[in-house]
C-alpha cells in the first residue's frame, strides 16, 4: 500500500489488496484524506488487517457500499431502505452493517415472478 495526502502528491495503490478488504481500504484512505490518520498510521493498520486475512475470518456482514453492490442498488437507495427500516441491518455505534444471511433472506422474500 502506498499512501498519500489529499493534495495529490501521493497515490494509493490497492491492487494487491484482496477484494474483501476494499471497503476497509476506502475508509482508511478517507481518514487520511480528511487528516484523521497519518499515512504511517494507515499503513500500519493496513498491515495489521492483511495479517488478519490469513486467519480466514468468515464474512458475516457487509459495509454499506458492499451491501448496495451485492443487491444491485446504489448506496443512496440502500440508505433510504435502511432509514425506512425495510432492509435488515445492525447499527454498531455510528456504523451500520448488513448481515449476510438476513440480507439473502430479505432478497428471497422480495423476489417476484417465477
Spatial strand order of the main sheet: 1-3-2
Number of helices: 5
Write down the secondary-structure element order: HHEHHEEH
Which value, in Å, is the CA radius of gyration? 16 Å
Tell me how many strands there are: 3
Largest sheet: 3 strands, antiparallel
What structural class do helix, strand and pairing data support? mainly alpha
**Per DSSP, what share of the residues sits in E-state strands of 2 or more residues?**
5-15%
Morphology call: elongated
Taking the alpha carbons of the first and last residues, their distance comes to: 46 Å
Fraction of residues in H or I helices: 40-55%
Whole-number total of structural domains: 2
Point out poorly predicted stretches. 1-16
| pLDDT averaged over residues | 79
Structure report:
- The chain is mainly alpha-helical and 114 residues long.
- The chain has 2 domains: 1-57, no CATH class; 61-109.
- It has 5 helices and 3 strands, in the order ααβααββα.
- It has helices at residues 22-33, 39-53, 64-71, 75-83, 100-109; strands at 61-62, 90-92, 95-99.
- Strands 1-3-2 form a 3-stranded antiparallel sheet.
- Strand 2 and strand 3 form a beta hairpin.
- Helix 1 (22-33) packs antiparallel against helix 2 and helix 3 crosses helix 4.
- It is elongated.
Amino acid at each position: 500500500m502506498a499512501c498519500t495526502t489529499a493534495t495529490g502528491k501521493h497515490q494509493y495503490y490497492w491492487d494487491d489488496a484482496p477484494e474483501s478488504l476494499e471497503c476497509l481500504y476506502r475508509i482508511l484512505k478517507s481518514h487520511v484524506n480528511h487528516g484523521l490518520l497519518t499515512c504511517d498510521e494507515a499503513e500500519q493498520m493496513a498491515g495489521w488487517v492483511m495479517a488478519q486475512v490469513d486467519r480466514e475470518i468468515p464474512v458475516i456482514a457487509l459495509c454499506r457500499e458492499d451491501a448496495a453492490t451485492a443487491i444491485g442498488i446504489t448506496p443512496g437507495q440502500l440508505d433510504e431502505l435502511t432509514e425506512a427500516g425495510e432492509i435488515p441491518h445492525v447499527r454498531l455505534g455510528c456504523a451500520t452493517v448488513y448481515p449476510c444471511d438476513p440480507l439473502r433472506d430479505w432478497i428471497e422474500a422480495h423476489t417476484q415472478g417465477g
